[in-house]
Every structure is written in C-alpha cells, then in structure tokens.
Write a structure and sequence with these properties.
Elements: H1 13-28, H2 38-45, H3 49-62, E1 65-68, E2 72-75, E3 80-82, H4 89-95, E4 100-110, H5 114-120, E5 128-137, E6 140-149, H6 166-174, E7 180-189, H7 192-198, E8 205-215, E9 218-228, E10 232-234
Parallel strand pairs: 3-10
Antiparallel strand pairs: 1-2, 4-5, 5-6, 6-9, 7-8, 8-9
Helix pairs in contact: 1-3, 2-3
Length: 255
C-alpha cells in the first residue's frame, strides 16, 4: 500500500485517511482484497483506532469496503451495470468477459396465478411452465429467476436442457424470437429462500425486475428476477421526451 502522510491541519485526520483508503480500494487493490487491520492502519499512519474506525466505517457505508465478521475488511466487488435492452444473461455475461453458469432449481408444469394467466393470455386453470433458475457469473451467485412460460408456444419445455441460454433455445428449437418486452423495476429485501440461493443474508437489498416478454405480439414469458443489490446497478439515458403511458423498456441479462 502506498504511503501518504496524515498531517495536522484543517482537514480532520479521519477524512484524510478515508481518502487514502478510497484510493486504495478504487485504484490499487482488486475486488475482494483485504485491507490492513485497524491496528496496522493506526500504526502506519500514526492515528488512533477510533480515527481508523471512522474512516473505514464511512467507506463501508459508501459500498467501497465490506466487513466480514471474524475475517476483516475487504474491498467490495464492483457493481455490474445493467443497460436497458433485450439480451440474454448468457450473452451479457460473455460480452463482459465473465463465465456464465445456470443452476436449474425447478421446472414444473402447473396452473399459474390469475395475474400470470392473464399476462400470458391463457384460459382459467390452463397450466403453464414454471421455471426457477440461479444465475452465476464467474461462479458468483448473481440472480434468482422465477418465470412462467406459455405452453402454447413452447410445448414440452421441461424436456430440454434449461441450464444454457433460454432465449437461444426458444429461437433455435421453437422458432420463437423474442422481440419486445415491458418491465417494472423495484427494490426489496431478500426473503429466506432467495437469500439462501444467492448466498446473502435475509433482508439483504435486491433489485427486482418483472418482465413480460413477447414475440410477434404473442406473450411468451412472465419473468421476475431478483438481482443482488451489492453487485448490480442500473444506468438509464434520459431526455425530456414525455413517455407514452404503459411499460416500454426491456432489461438485458436475464434468460
């Protein structure tokens, strides 16, 4: 770690140390690397451990550092940026230079809730395919997907390997090229089951995307995805155009 002096003056020492540690986390250490202990930092920079604790605490609050009980303090993983366009998770991760992987948690045929039946254009009590998958990037659990699929357009979906790109399967096997989607995004705390799959604590912040996707005007997919809030962020380009009513955007990086 580069050595920078902390001096007496108008800037508080904890602010000077915070800036030093910020440069360390952003420019010198890779994500997931340990920073020196409170004792080592206090000795190296000639400050009290209270000063160290204040500086580190601010960076933890900003999301640049993360504490692991009994292990120390580490640089946080960088958040991946979500662009709002229709692209498969597999293609998105490969484009980023990451290795995508998918665990199929469950795939069954059953009657969906009324809201889903309406969204997919099904008759009451008509079954659909319910698919639950865990998505990973370079081995790190990133998202849990729980989706419903229209059996009229994708019959015998359960007979296929669903651990690869679902969008590629739909296009190559069923001739269904997804071309439009409406999406709603919100934040919520992780429930017990989702936290277990993602390897986070119950109540951890998640970004949630519910997306209704179709092909040539026909509804195909009703998918809700829970993404880790510590690893994902959304960027949008804005202008002063007044939008039309109703959902219009689609998120990349799902199926």
């Amino acid at each position: 770690m580069s050595r920078t002096e902390i001096v007496d003056g108008p800037r508080p020492k904890h602010v000077q140390l915070r800036d030093i540690l910020r440069r360390l986390a952003e420019q010198e250490l890779p994500p997931g690397a340990a920073i020196p202990s409170e004792r080592d930092l206090a000795r190296q920079y000639g400050v009290s451990r209270i000063t160290v604790r204040a500086a580190v605490g601010q960076l933890v609050a900003e999301g640049l550092l993360t504490r692991a009980k009994g292990r120390g303090t580490f640089t946080a993983r960088r958040r991946m940026d979500v662009q709002l366009y229709l692209e498969s998770f597999t293609d998105d991760m490969r484009r980023r230079g990451l290795l995508p992987a998918t665990d199929v948690v469950e795939c069954v045929e059953e009657v969906p809730p009324t809201e889903v039946s309406v969204a997919l254009g099904l008759t009451p009590h008509e079954p659909a395919y319910r698919l639950v998958r865990l998505r990973r990037a370079d081995g790190v659990p990133l998202a849990v997907e729980r989706g419903w699929y229209n059996p009229r357009l994708v019959p015998d979906l359960t007979a296929h390997d669903l651990s690869e790109s679902l969008y590629t399967l739909l296009a190559d096997t069923y001739g269904v090229q997804l071309d439009h989607a409406g999406q709603t995004v919100w934040a919520e705390g992780s429930d017990v089951d989702t936290a277990r799959l993602l390897g986070v604590r119950t109540g951890s912040p998640l970004l949630v995307f519910r997306r209704l996707t179709g092909s040539q005007g026909r509804p195909v997919e009703d998918m809700t995805s829970w993404y880790r809030g510590d690893l994902y962020q959304v960027t949008m380009q804005l202008d002063r155009t007044v939008p039309e009513s109703g959902p219009t955007s689609a998120k990349g990086g799902t199926s």
